[in-house]
Amino acid sequence: MSNMDISTGHMVLSYMEDHLRNKDRLEQEWVALCAYEAEPCASNIALKTDHDPRNPAYIATQGPLASTAADFWQLVWEQGSVVIVMLTRLTENGQALCHRYWPEEGSELYHIYEVHLVSEHIWCDDYLVRSFYLKNVRTGETRTVTQFHFLSWPESGIPASTKALLEFRRDGVGRTGTYCLIDMVLNRMSKGAKEIDIAATLEHIRDQRPNMVRTKSQFEFVLMSVAEEVHAILKALPQ
């Protein structure tokens, strides 16, 4: 594989099983939100970040409820997030998975944050892209936020293909962890890393949030996605 070595191995799968049984011993870190002046009790929501300064930071969060949609936008604002990756449908098999935390058209106010839907583009059957203007009505400051909404990842399973995918899902761990692991590895590849230890990367994110990459099939999907990208890179090299 040229000068790039990707370490995996059976130890990773047994490591995953061990961590599923021992999640209680993992340390928890949370992103604290500034308390609303009008709602002093709404000061914290269960979120997790990757603090590795060498790579992009991720915030893995549960899909908002109707009662926490304002907290979600407060999180986006306070953390300076400009991209939302949503890996769940709003409903699946008649079951509600996530509250629609954006307006279907026009603008909607979530406490002090006004969200305006600028555009919605369906790229393919698998995903669509939305653009929002996010405004803090107290300060008048506005920002642009882009949402990538993946539609074909089932609640308990993996996508049918890696093509459409190449810190967000119902409970903020399984699918979110799978996405984050793929993105972290591909990001390091794009920066010219000579050696990538997928097992160590998985350990890094699971030390911060339990159950990130929940099943063997999800981990195998990570390997499949990375292998496909490596194949594309090698194919593009001059012969």
TrEMBL record:
Q: Which Gene3D superfamilies match?
A: Protein tyrosine phosphatase superfamily
Instruction: Note the SMART domains from the entry.
Output: PTPc, PTPc_motif
Q: Which GO terms describe its biological process?
A: neuron development; regulation of secretion
Main localization is membrane
Transmembrane region positions? none
UniProt domain Tyrosine specific protein phosphatases: residue ranges: 172-220
Which GO MF terms are attached to this record?
protein tyrosine phosphatase activity
PROSITE patterns, alphabetically? TYR_PHOSPHATASE_2, TYR_PHOSPHATASE_PTP
UniProt xrefs under InterPro entries: IA-2/IA-2_beta, Prot-tyrosine_phosphatase-like, PTP_cat, Tyr_Pase_cat, Tyr_Pase_dom
Q: What is this protein called?
A: Receptor-type tyrosine-protein phosphatase N2
How does the record say this protein sits in the membrane?
Answer: Single-pass type I membrane protein
Gene for this protein?
PTPRN2
Q: Which domain of life is it from?
A: Eukaryota
Q: Which Pfam families does UniProt cross-reference here?
A: Y_phosphatase
Q: Keywords of this protein's UniProt record, alphabetized?
A: Cytoplasmic vesicle, Receptor
Q: Where in the cell is it found?
A: Cytoplasmic vesicle membrane
Which residues does the UniProt record annotate as the domain Tyrosine-protein phosphatase?
1-229
What Gene Ontology cellular-component terms does the record carry? cytoplasmic vesicle membrane; secretory granule; synapse
